[in-house]
Amino acid sequence: MLNLELNGRLPDLAQTQRLATRNYGHYTSMQVRDGRVRGLALHMARLDDGNEEFFGARMDVTEEHRVRELIRHALGGERDASVRVGSVPGEPGTPPDVLVSVSDPAGPAPRAPLRVRTRTYERDWPEHKHAATMGLTVALRQAKLAGYDDALFTGPDDAVREGTTWNVVFWDGTEVIWPRAPMLKGVTMVLLQIAMTMNGTPWTLRPIERGELPDLLAAAATNSRWPARQIESVDRVKFPEGERLAQVLTAAWDTVPWDEI
Description:
Helix content is 30%, strand content 29%. The protein has six helices and 15 strands. It has helices spanning 13-21, 40-55, 61-75, 134-145, 187-199, 242-253, and strands at residues 2-6, 26-33, 36-38, 81-88, 97-103, 114-120, 150-154, 160-163, 167-171, 176-179, 203-206, 218-222, 229-234, 237-238, 258-260. The strands form two sheets. Strands 6, 7, 8, 9, 10, 11, 12, 13 and 14 form a nine-stranded mixed β-sheet that branches. Helix 5 (187-199) links the parallel strand 10 and strand 11. The chain is globular and about 55 Å long.
């Protein structure tokens, strides 16, 4: 399945040309199951923050309802799907257009754990999920050419930040550790933190230096497609207890409620 709608309609040729040639905008990605999504309020907050940063205006309640209606319209009765909702420049002097794409739902995470390598890189506007993705795409491509599955970004200060399209999380044998650094606060990451707080799983948010990685026992990648994908290794550092961390994250994720769109 594939559907693409701009303000609730199939883009015409001129609009498609504009979308293809203007690399400006921001978005959020979600997994819809049975017409519901986890963390809908967080997705809307992300779009609201992006609108303020890149278009100079926040969404009001009416606009939020409109966005939800546009998602339902693009789904067209589909109950399970991967959905991406973005704000892109409209005509001069008008609010941003809403672009919704619908594709097949993500399947279960591949069983093989990820092997990733570090790369010194900081996304532009790291707190936002935006259209300037060439840097992370190059990092992913070069990592695969070098025999890895993906890339994990570290800053100029050598502190761990985030993966190309995912947040990273570690475990030291006592508590779950999330990096504190300039990066995207992923919706899945925030929902897991809330769920772990509710079920009593010890966790913390603190800076993690690359040199600290050998002292950690497990690592995982989290995003809307797979909330707990094991990471086998980062560079030459191997993590022997990835399955245990994945089990902790999965148990927390299973308690996260669903929201009607």
